[in-house]
Each structure stands twice: as structure tokens, then as C-alpha cells.
Amino acid sequence: MNNKDAFSVDGQIVLVSGASRGIGRAIAAGFAQRGAQVVISGRNAETLAKTSGEISRGDRTVRTKVCDVADVAAGQALIDQVVEESGRIDTLVNCAGVNKRMRAEEYTPEVYDFITNINIRGAYFLALAAGRRMIAAGKGSIINIDSLNSHTPLERVSVYAMAKAAMRQMTKCLAIEWGPRGVRVNGIGPGLTITDLTRPLLGDEDTPVSQWRRKNTPLRRVAVPEDMVGAAIFLASDAASYITGQTLYVDGGTTSGLFWPLDG
Description:
Helix content is 42%, strand content 14%. It is α/β, with parallel strands linked by helices and 264 residues long. The radius of gyration is 18 Å and the shape is globular.
């Protein structure tokens, strides 16, 4: 295989959960642009249909499946449907996620369950459902969309950060168990990215949060969803065939360290 082919995902069967918007949408579009047969899932049929219409390429329609990953049975059914219709699943991108920003003492059990049931419980069991199919096939790639918060948590997102830290360990645990059976499991840890989830926090470019984020990002900008596409394509491709159990932080260098506040 030449170097060009090593990075190919052409013909792969790829499922992206939480793909109707934001990072999931961008990653799904990236796979579709590169010849993969893409299935996207989410909780809203109308939003999924709109996204499919926007990112489908030529005669390769991006298929949609309504699924709330917090419902473990629904996640299992989603994987079963993909395999029944396509014959296999090559790559799962675990991207479904939610967050509510508040002080730690303000979280209720209901909000805690809402966040963790999607961000870690749902992600885990969706990975298990896909992993069993991949183990049977002797190959496959799972990419968990982690967060900068699994490395360094931000203030007032304690439950989200805890769930993402658990996802980082989940990535390692599954990689250890499934590597001998041909299945690779990796993560992508986006830095603060402009999405519907973060826009209320970031506001416009002149808000204190946006200014602070740019100041403490070596590349001096906030990420956009498309910044995550290259990492996802790489981790799904044969170019990453000897990589598993890793979380790749796509954060503009934020995890390298903070800038001294007196430095102009």
C-alpha cells in the first residue's frame, strides 16, 4: 500500500453518533467527502434529514437513524441496523454529547443523569455493540470524541468533565481488551470549539471568555468543528494501524501549558 492509500477511508462503513450538528456533523461530512458510506444518528429526525441533504455526495446518500444513545437498547438496535443494511461496520465515531454549565453545588441528580447517560453510559454501550461486531470481523476502529476537559477541566462543567475523563479511560480499557482481536480504540480531545453547545459561553470574539481562550491557545484562535476532521480520518485509516488507546488533543496547543499573564 502506498502512502496515499494508507490515508484512504474510501468505501468504509462509518457511523457517526450525534452527527446532526457541530463536531459530529463536520466529521460525518469529512468521511462522506472522502468516499465513505456514512450513517449519522441523533435524537431529532428533522435535523438529521437536513444534515444528510447538506453533506451527501453524488449517489452516496448519507443515511440517517434516529437514536437516543442514552437508551442502551436503542443503541444496540442502531448497530444491528447498520450491519444488517451494510454487511459490516468499519468505524464508529462516538460523538453524541450534552452539557449544562453550572456551579457544582447546583447540579441535581436529574441533570447529572441526563449528562452522564449520554456522554459516558450511552457512549460505552454503543461502543460495546459496535465492538462485538468488529471483533467478529477481526477489524474495526472506534473513535471517541473526548474533550479538553478530560485533561484540564474548566470551571462549572464538573459533571461533563467527569464523564469525559471516564471516556478517556474507557478508550484505554477497550484498546487493551480489543487490540488482540483487531479492533483499535482511540479518542479525539477537541479544544474549545465553536458549536451550538459552546456558543452561549463564548459569545462573540470580544467576550472575556473568547479573549482568554485565544490568549491561552498557542495558535491564537478558537477551534471550529472542521478542525477535527483530519484527526478522525487519520485514526480511521490504515495510516493509524499501529495506534490504539490514545487520545489526540486537537486543541491548538492548549494542553502544552498556560501563558504568563504579564506577557504581552
